[in-house]
Specification:
alpha/beta, eight-stranded mixed β-sheet
Length: 226
């Protein structure tokens, strides 16, 4: 089956405490987004890659590709004001394909096993997401009144979230709703069932400065190469 990935990189860097968007920050001497793209190329060299960026960042990304001699084929698409709009733009830019992954541009450490398992499950069931069981005590309520909940019933959700192409295309014909926090919530609202697979613990999302340090250590342990 033909496979595609939409990599959504819409961060502006505000929570990193600097002006450079987090997808362009250096991780072991290369921008985060390049590591992210390479994970999918290493998984399958012929996979279709669509990178969604805010329009003002596209030229800067092209400059980075020249600077680092990053010549791996990918299509660049301008995103929208929300993640929903950005993914929709990516979906509309897809070529002929069967399975579509949507991945955060700032998750540069997703494992080959996680990618493979998500594609395999989506091929079988239509929609698959990687998750991890909650490993800390959880409470629900307010700061003034709360109660413990059974954490064995809760999972944290990662990307890539993978869908059959007809499912994700149908889902993104919907009108945006505030409950759309990820692609699975969009697909679920359209009436499709979501299957979960086990993700990898180091598939972290780089959001805060300390996340970059953690990612660097993970990468060193993996002896990641560019």
């Amino acid at each position: 089956m033909k496979k595609s990935v939409i990599i959504v990189a819409g961060g502006n860097g505000s929570r990193m405490g600097g002006g450079l968007p987090k997808q362009f920050l250096l991780l072991e001497n290369y921008p985060v987004l390049m590591w992210t793209i390479l994970n999918f190329i290493h998984y399958e060299s012929m996979i279709e890659i669509v990178v969604v960026l805010p329009e003002p960042q596209i030229n800067y990304w092209k400059e980075l590709c020249r600077k680092y001699n990053f010549t791996h084929p990918h299509r660049i698409v301008a995103g929208g004001e929300t993640r929903f709009q950005s993914v929709k733009s990516g979906v509309e830019a897809l070529g002929i394909t069967d399975l579509v992954a949507v991945h955060d541009g700032v998750r540069p450490l997703v494992s080959q096993l996680t990618i493979a398992n998500c594609f395999s499950q989506a091929e079988a069931s239509g929609a698959a997401i990687p998750v991890l069981p909650a490993n800390e005590t959880l409470r629900t309520g307010t700061m003034g009144q709360s109660q413990t909940v059974d954490r064995t019933r809760f999972y944290t959700v990662q990307t890539p979230q993978v869908f059959k192409v007809e499912i994700i295309k149908a889902a993104y014909t919907q009108i945006w709703e505030p409950t759309f926090t990820d692609d699975a919530s969009v697909v679920e609202q359209a009436g499709y069932q979501i299957q979960m697979v086990l993700g990898n613990r180091d598939n972290i999302k780089i959001t805060h400065p300390e996340d970059l340090l953690v990612a660097s250590e993970y990468l060193k342990q993996k002896k990641g190469t560019f």
